[in-house]
Batch of 2 targets.
Target 1
Amino acid sequence: MPKVPLFSIVEDNLSFRESLRLLMASLDYNVETFSSAASFLTSPRLIETRCLIADVQMPSMSGIELYRHLIEVGHAIPTILMTAYPRR
């Protein structure tokens, strides 16, 4: 049986992070959540992640900065960036 790919969610808002985790899990996705880019980067789950869903606006390291960092260090993970803020 093939292993189910891991989706990692990096979102600083606890309520939204948990809601997204529950939605993804209800669709039978394998999901891990992280409250910050730093916690994701230090997790052993990073190398297992097949798709990253990250908030654009987070303290310390934004989702865009996280995406760029991953590319620089050789982890070009397919990434979905999301935000609650309108484009200006």
Target 2
Amino acid sequence: MPKQIGDIIVFPLKEISEKLDITTVTLRKYIRQGKLIARKWGGNWYVSEDSLREFFNTAPGKKSSRKKKP
């Protein structure tokens, strides 16, 4: 279930993996490679709606144009 923090909507990796029919391991690989921007919060990884849009609008094989967050 997405969470809303102010005007930011974030999705847990588990939900994204179920919707896209890929594993959370694959999603974490994309995060490590810089293809998908995510934040660890309370022991779980979350991806913002904006990061998901950018991921799908970026050509395959290219890294996100945004800098990786610590």
